[in-house]
Amino acid sequence: MKKETIAIIGTGLMGCSFAHGLNRHFNIIGVDSSKIALEQAFHHGFIHTCEDIETAVALATTIIVATPTNNASSIISSVLEMAGEKTTVLDLCSTKQNLCTALSSHPKRTQYVAAHPMAGAEKSGSQSASKELLYGKTIFVCEQHLSSDLALKSALQLFNVLNLIPQYLTSVEHDKLMAQVSHLPQVVAFGLAAALSQNSEQVIHAGSGFDSTTRLSGSSAAMWVPILFQNKENILELIEQINSSLIQIAHYIESEDEPALSGLILKANQVRSIFEQRNIKN
């Protein structure tokens, strides 16, 4: 039986991780503005063929847009205009409110599924891609009531193959949540590493604590700058909270207020414990 064709626009970390998990079940076409990225994706065996966007859309029953957030809206809009009436288009962007607003009045909005997998790595590119990155992870679907039954069914079929677990929420809820659990930790990692940049030669003496708290600082600026700008209102509000916490800590240290500092650390311990218990359950 002939395999269905899926087009993946953007052959970086996330696009190729999806391709890796799907390429045994579907024919995968890769599309990318970077010839080098396409060659790497093909060399690693993630995609079967490379095509221009018009050809890929004409051949595919499902199109996955895995590009940076700053140009996703225009790409999705163009793809929807070219797509046949039974074609499903979904994206993997980590911000959703601006995207969903921009596409809300598109004539083919029902063919679009706004999705975001809670998976990633600090290293970008197809060389870091793997289907294991997605296994058992949550994938958020936003404004699902605006997607047709056919589009949702097509998307859920792919999620099932990838062992992704769908959860549903609004784009506003999504972006607030991502600011807390994804975007703020990224900002803190960047800030911590940048604060030590004048003494960067000293990091050769650092241990596991430095490693675990700055791992995310190795992430790509090309990916993260657009994300932080797209979700800036939520992120800036949380940065204010971080600043307040640091001022509190500085005050407790300066005044040697052991009970207050211990209480703050205990609260931090409790948050970490909740996260660890979730991982045990999963």
From TrEMBL:
Cited Gene3D superfamilies: 6-phosphogluconate dehydrogenase C-terminal like domain, NAD(P)-binding Rossmann-like Domain
Domain Prephenate/arogenate dehydrogenase: 4-282
Domain of life: Bacteria
Keyword Ribosomal protein: no
Pfam families: PDH_C, PDH_N
GO molecular function, one term: NAD+ binding
Biological process terms in GO annotation: tyrosine biosynthetic process
Keyword set, alphabetical order: Oxidoreductase
Protein name: Prephenate dehydrogenase
Species of origin: Williamwhitmania taraxaci
